[in-house]
Design brief:
By secondary structure, the chain is mainly alpha-helical. Helices cover about 40% and strands about 0% of the residues.
Length: about 325
């Protein structure tokens, strides 16, 4: 697959350069950061994550979403995991984060790691590793993307900082592009990372307007396949019931694959933000390229490396290693 003029990466070259670049920034993130300080860490995280996924097959989608929401606010510092204390509302309280799940799983993983290596492994690294391992579970011993480690945990979490930083399911292409560019991510990264929607479910309220009142006149979104819209209306009544969910990738929501990009071209993307990827010439071209399974899996790994390095805290003077992921030390 050739690299295009629109920044679609040739994976074998770009992944290596990304790894080298990330490891060169003040020794920031490296492979197997805990090799000497806690050599069992990554094995413990994987084993506990796999155990939890066996009883909760949706955990991969849940943790992947938590990681996305964490990295887009204050960088990948586990600030999303902090609970509200006193009058300061944490990021969890912001509306886009109120439906996030998987926090209990991170607590369990952290507890097991602390038993072996107290005060050494950050919650930010645990989140990054657990999200990868949970999504990779069906592939057994083949991790779907590399995870560099060495992050430290942030000590600040404010709900007021979430709006405008988290990509919304209602966003148009210009808004999505702007949010990603602010984090140093490209249009290619935007499209590639949207492929995370190939797993998991969504609440009816996140797309109900597309079915019943798109322009305020009781109409449906014309960019949504009419038959698919009819099907969604059988699942989601009007007004939306917040307890009802549907698959984000029809009939493929538990399989981490390139099917998401196929349904986009069939006008079956669930969110406005999904449909928006077809409104730009360069992004729609990338959507078509990513229908190739190998192209998707390789490029998703590269973009995850980039996203997981957003504004990380490293060294000894930034952040801390939390003893409990929900509270600062």
């Amino acid at each position: 697959m050739r690299a295009s003029n629109h920044g679609f990466p040739l994976f074998s070259v770009l992944l290596l350069s990304t790894l080298l670049a990330l490891q060169a920034v003040n020794g920031a993130l490296i492979n197997n950061f805990y090799r000497k300080s806690c050599p069992q860490a990554e094995r413990i995280i994987k084993d506990v994550t796999f155990r939890l996924v066996r009883s909760n097959p949706g955990l991969g989608a849940q943790l992947l979403r938590v990681q996305f929401h964490d990295c887009f606010v204050r960088g990948c510092d586990a600030s999303i995991l902090l609970d509200t204390v006193g009058t300061n509302q944490s990021e969890k309280e912001a509306r886009p984060n109120q439906s996030l799940l998987g926090f209990d799983a991170i607590d369990q993983i952290k507890s097991e790691v602390e038993k072996v290596c107290s005060g050494i492994v950050s919650c930010a690294d645990i989140l990054a590793l657990a999200a990868r391992d949970a999504v990779s579970f069906p592939f057994k011993n083949r991790p779907l993307w590399p995870v560099l480690t060495g992050r430290r945990d942030g000590t600040v979490s404010r709900s007021s900082e979430v709006t405008g930083n988290i990509p919304s399911p209602f966003s148009d292409f210009a808004t999505l592009k702007q949010i990603f560019e602010k984090k140093g991510l490209t249009v290619s990264d935007l499209v590639i990372l949207s492929g995370g929607h190939t797993i998991g479910v969504a609440h009816c309220g996140t797309f109900s307007r597309r079915l019943y009142n798109f322009t305020g006149k009781g109409d449906a979104d014309p960019s949504l396949d009419p038959k698919y819209a009819d099907f969604l209306r059988t699942k989601c009544p009007n007004p939306a019931d917040s307890s009802i969910t549907v698959e984000m990738d029809p009939r493929s929501s538990r399989s981490f694959d390139s099917n998401y990009f196929k349904i986009l071209t069939q006008k079956k993307g669930l969110f406005q933000s999904d449909a928006a990827l077809l409104t730009d010439v360069s992004s729609s071209r990338i959507v078509r390229q990513l229908q190739n399974p190998r192209a998707f899996s390789l490029n998703f790994a590269n973009s995850m490396l980039k996203m997981a390095a957003i504004e990380v805290l490293t060294g000894t003077n930034n952040g801390e290693i939390r003893k409990r992921c929900r509270f600062v030390n």
